[in-house]
Design the sequence.
C-alpha cells in the first residue's frame, strides 16, 4: 500500500531535518497509528507522502505509484483529511463533496449515492445543503472526511482526525476506520491520543526529532503487559 524509502525533508528556515532517513512500509488492510510529540515530524511526513510538500531525498510509493514520478496516479489512491479543515466555507456540504468527487472523476450517479450514504453514516444528512461556514468544528471535520472518501481511496490518511470532537462523532469516524480496513484498505493517522491508538491500530510508529524510532505490532506488544503510554514517554523523553 505504502512504501517510504530513506525519506528526508528539511525546511529552508531550519538547519535541522524535520524528517531524516525514514523507512516505512504499510500493508493492505491495516490501521497504522503515528505517534510523536509536537515537532517530531509526523505532519511533515504526511505532507510529503500526500504530495503537498516536496522532499530532498528518498522515495514514496502509494499503490505502486511514485509520488514524484506519477503524482496523479499516487493521489488518485489517497483520501487525505488535514488537521486544519481546509474547505470552501461559502459552499454547502453537498456542493463541496460534489466538487471533490468531480476532481477525482467520480461518475455522476455514483457520486450522488456516495454523498447520501456517507452523510447518513456520519449523521450529516440534514446539514448537507447548508453552507459550511455555519458548521461546527465536528461537522467541518466530517464533511472533510466525506470529501476524502468520495472517490473510494485505498489509502486513507488523517492528521489528528479526532481532536476536539464529541463522543458521537468520534465513534462514527472510528467505526468507519475499522470498516475501511475490513474492505482491504489501509488507514494511516497521526494522533496524540495513545489510548485510541492502542485500541484501534494494528501497528504504530513512534517518531522523535524527525526519526522513526520503532514500529510496534500492538497484538504482540499487548502480550508483554507493558503500558504503551509509558513505553512511548520513555522512548521519546528529552
Sequence:
Amino acid at each position: 500500500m505504502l512504501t517510504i524509502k530513506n525519506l528526508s525533508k528539511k525546511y529552508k528556515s531550519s538547519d535541522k531535518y524535520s524528517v531524516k532517513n525514514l523507512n516505512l512500509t504499510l500493508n493492505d488492510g491495516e490501521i497504522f497509528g503515528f505517534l510523536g510529540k509536537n515537532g517530531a515530524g509526523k505532519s511533515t511526513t504526511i505532507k510529503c507522502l500526500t504530495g503537498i510538500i516536496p522532499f530532498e531525498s528518498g522515495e514514496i510509493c502509494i499503490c505502486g505509484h511514485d509520488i514524484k514520478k506519477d503524482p496523479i496516479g499516487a493521489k488518485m489512491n489517497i483520501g487525505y483529511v488535514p488537521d486544519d479543515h481546509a474547505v470552501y466555507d461559502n459552499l454547502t456540504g453537498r456542493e463541496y463533496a460534489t466538487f471533490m468527487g468531480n476532481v477525482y472523476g467520480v461518475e455522476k450517479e455514483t457520486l450522488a449515492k456516495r454523498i447520501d450514504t456517507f452523510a447518513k453514516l456520519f449523521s450529516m444528512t440534514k446539514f448537507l445543503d447548508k453552507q459550511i461556514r455555519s458548521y461546527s468544528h465536528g461537522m467541518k471535520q466530517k464533511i472533510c472526511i466525506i470529501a476524502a472518501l468520495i472517490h473510494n481511496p485505498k489509502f486513507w490518511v488523517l492528521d489528528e482526525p479526532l481532536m476536539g470532537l464529541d463522543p458521537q462523532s468520534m465513534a462514527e469516524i472510528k467505526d468507519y476506520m475499522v470498516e475501511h480496513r475490513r474492505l482491504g484498505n489501509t488507514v494511516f493517522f497521526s494522533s496524540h491520543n495513545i489510548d485510541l491508538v492502542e485500541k484501534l491500530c494494528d501497528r504504530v510508529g513512534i517518531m522523535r526529532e524527525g526519526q522513526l524510532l520503532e514500529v510496534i505490532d500492538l497484538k504482540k506488544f499487548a502480550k508483554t503487559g507493558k503500558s504503551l503510554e509509558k513505553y512511548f514517554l520513555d522512548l521519546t523523553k528529552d
About this structure: The longest strand covers residues 2-9. The radius of gyration is 18 Å. The longest helix spans residues 167-182.
